Fold each of these.
Amino acid sequence: MEKLKVGVIGATGMVGQNYIRLLNNHPWFEVVYVAASARSAGKTFKEAVAGRWLMEDTLPVQLENIIVEDATNVAAAKKHCDFVFSAVEIDKQAVKELEDAYASNGIPVVSNNSAHRHTSDVPMLIAEINDHHLEIIPSQQKRFNNDKGFVVVKPNCSLQSYMTPVYALIKAGYPIQDMIVTTMQAVSGAGYPGVSSLDMVDNVVPYIGGEEEKSEIEPLKILGDIRNGEFESYKGINISAHCNRVGVIDGHMACVSLKFSERKPEIEEIKEIWNDFTAIPQELDLPLAPKQPVIYMEETDRPQPRKDRNLDKAMAVTVGRLRECNVFDYRFVGLSHNTVRGAAGGGILNAELLKARGFLNRQV
Ligand code: NAP
């Protein structure tokens, strides 16, 4: 099979570098184009990331001398790319305009940015949960006035550590009424150089701008439905979130307390629901899909970021410490790798699903 030609917009950043690393030798996609800010444009990729390549794997040799383009040069991307991944750190309005410019020029955008998460015809996709939201793409394409370009986004990275386990319970017939979630989020979630070391070492920062609002609102779109060509939010669940930055390099963890709206399952049944849960990415055997998307760990002190974040290509969500709650019904701990499952890996899985569903095709 001939691979699709891919651009990474924001390739020099934390998420962009993870895209470059994870797409090296990908069976369906080949990186042929990289773009970033005007500061990096015109340099070779090797020069642009000199002194700030943060991956353990070395820079793929075939990309060392590729010239970094300016992210705003949509015409250049159009010549080279069948679609692009987008992970840029600029203000929201500028991201919207940039992603719209790609889509209206017929280039599909698989985005990690938050700008379009609440646009009424843009799917916010966790491939195991809401693949049916892709049905809205044709009506988005009408807005962009072409039948090729569109934008699909990923939700906030910290949601990944608990939304799939929560969805698995709802899908099994146990709707949830109230949820309190307290996250402990890795420093890599703030990009590079991120939070200063003097703020992070020997410390916890109990505030991440905008993160609590995202944790409380984004799940409602993900769990929602499409009505009359627009997303309708799920109304069944109240969420209260506390988001903290902790001195962990990779791996967002969440302590979650749940109250079910109707009947409540037994503890052993919940573990079985989680361990048995599979969805469309597993049925389609997508290349980056974890074999088991939710892994329950019986050890009393797991999951832990350093020990468990890399399970199943760093794409699995690990859960543990499921126990009764004195206030709600149950509590548990969830963990996922924020720059893989929560960012580049999740974006690649979304693109694999889009390709399997016929939304990504050869154009160049
Ligand atoms: P980052 O490490 O700060 O990288 C930012 C990227 O954006 C770089 O490639 C940078 O290029 C580029 N950029 C900056 N200003 C630009 C401009 N004016 N025009 C075009 N490109 C510009 O940030 P990151 O952590 O990778 O995050 C990127 C996006 O992904 C953000 O929207 C973030 O919220 C989201 N995200 C991050 C994570 C995570 O775990 N880190 C998870 C999920 C989502 P230069 O190198 O040329 O400056």
Amino acid sequence: MMNNTCVIVPAAGSGVRMGGAIPKQFLNLAGRPILHHTLSALVKMPSLSMILLIVAEGYVAKTRQLVSQWRLGQPVTVAEVRVAAGGRERSDSVYNGLGMLPEECEWVMIHDAVRPFASPALIRAVWEGARATGACIAAVPSTDTVKLVRDGNVCQTLARDEVWLVQTPQVFRKQIVTAAYERAVSKGWKGTDDASFVERMGSPVSIVEGERTNIKVTSPEDLQWAEWYIATIESGRR
Ligand code: CTP
Ligand code: MG
């Protein structure tokens, strides 16, 4: 295991595609908030020094209170869970988190609050995978053909065997991801994942094969699938 790894969990979105008044990370899945599932998976990792949970400004106090009440499974090996405020875009939220990491933090894992099903094996594999290149992400080969579309017309069809769908966790050497985000801010780059900024800086990013069950809960049917999946896992255990 790599020392001094901190985890940033972006949870400051408002869940427009899910709809409803409560942001999806706080919606119940099998009786507890999605965020609770996600944090429970992360605290299973030994030797993580800190989890930094980034929520919308209006949710900071409430989330601190929630997290302090949660039992995140035993034994809890992570030293502490901190809660701080995010920003307008996901990248703003992660950038805020990067600025709050302790000096001694060497590695940064970034994992979406709304991916409750990343397995310990996957989290560990991405973590280990970052050691060589300094940047490693989970991704799965696309089973669908992907086309680029502009103004309602197809402009390109990508070779399916080269298309990978990107997930989190993503793990980086802190220096690399911080430099990439600094450059993204100064150049106005936009990106929906963290690795894209590292790529644009010209640094290598390696891939570990993710899990098709490691979904990002995005729309109401994802939540239905998630309920079904948990029920299936639990009936398998009985
Ligand atoms: N996120 C964040 N800060 C933002 C936007 C998103 O921390 N300003 C987080 C979300 O809370 C989520 C993760 O980034 O855990 C992935 O984003 P996404 O699935 O797009 O969530 P939302 O932005 O909340 O959903 P939507 O795009 O449908 O509004
Ligand atoms: Mg979003």
Amino acid sequence: MSIDVAPARPAAPLVLPRFAFDNSYARELDGAYVAWQPSPAPAPELVWLNRSLAEELGLDPDALAAPAGVAVLAGNAVPEGATPIAQAYAGHQFGGFSPQLGDGRALLLGEVIDRAGRRRDIAFKGSGRTPFSRGGDGKAALGPVLREVIVGEAMHALGIPTTRALAAVATGEPVQREAPLPGAVLTRIAASHLRVGTFEFFAARGQVELLRRVADYAIARHDPELIGRDDRHLQLLRRVCARQAALVARWMGVGFIHGVMNTDNTTVSGETIDYGPCAFMEAYDPQAVFSSIDHHGRYAYRKQPAILQWNLARLAEALLPLIDADTERAVALATEAVNEFPALYRTQWLAVLRAKLGLDAAATTAAADGDDQALADDWLSLLHAHGVDFTLGFRRLADAAAGDTGGLHALFGAAGEAGLDAWLARWRQRLGAEGTVMAEAAAAGSPRAVPADELAARLRAANPIVIPRNHRVEEALAAATDRADLAPLRRLLDALREPFVERAEFAELVEPAPAPFMAGYRTFCGT
Ligand code: AMP
Ligand code: MG
């Protein structure tokens, strides 16, 4: 018996996409990482590719989407010039110190210089076990990977500094969680993966020289103006405090709750990192917390600035041996820097609130600052008292500026009407005081009038209409995970790309979740 077998086609050699790697971390910080390889995925499939980000990085999106590119993004092929490493870091998690966390399911593939000349990390998450994995499997599930895609892209479009997803690849392998889930690898782009926990790792081990090298590396990468200064490590601390204060103020301004603000998730760059059990608030509630593992509300919305300061104090402690040889003096200098945080944050938060209320901040005095903060605080109290959606409450101020308060009245309901009207009168008065007036005054031809439509436009540019509503995120993740249906994910990403533009085609994505959904809403860590 003979069997006809088609002549075997010689396998076409995979031509891997080109990356112009320049791997400074691997080159300069020997001792701060372990060289490691990604685990292969049995049946990789590209779920999502961030084409515009690929271009920004100088990568060819078509090459990444081709089989050889997907092989790279799955960890099955390591492109030329990559030096995959697992980075060492420690961290305070929910207040307790873990001296060794590290990349337990992540790898830094390498760095590239993007089109704008910025150095960016290209890293995997979910690429298999490493020496830092402890009991974990080193894997990631598709749902959490796609959550990171959605929320990262949303934050980016909102103008908030963030790490971003370059790609999500399904591995074709189930990962065992409470139930088996489809596995995936996320490719994440970051200004760097240096975190407070990076410094804690070396400080806790008493490796002062390595700590100094890491700190000088951070300075060269993020604060090159400080190179060569004797007080550079103190100034690095101050810079990180400033960047993080600005970042968290921006989070607060869109109702974002990170959910797991551990020190290993607080970056040196000032980018948001690690979208695990995060969520956007709907009805304004300063106590809001959604993470299933945050039983005591440590990382509740209103606590985020204070927790950040706590994390920065951990950074200060780790940097002490570099700040001054005299410990007492080092403590005094570091304490002073960290103690300035509340004022730093207050300034940033007021700037965010002023933008959201359309208030000009050009000529401010302490008294004007106090008045504006009170006006904003009273607005927030009203939102809270009447259970008003945070995003829509601010957004509808733009319509009110243009003379239509119907949207706001609908949000506040009859019970909130008197409070709303009284507050709007104060707001109008404040706007009038700086020469910005409402539609009526503009119509009356007031000489100091800023046209109402200009004010409305300013308010719309500061207050998004589209945020990743939690029920829509869950819908998109469920469709992708349970039914391999990527249409809801794509649609949501389309809507989130221009969060400040109200478009009829995305009307349903703008609406808050039904109350029962939010009442029971919990988000889970991406592990
Ligand atoms: P994260 O919650 O992603 O910030 O991770 C916190 C720490 O746990 C890091 O050291 C991770 O590498 C590690 N980790 C999280 N999930 C896993 C996993 N599935 N396998 C191994 N390590 C993990
Ligand atoms: Mg983390």
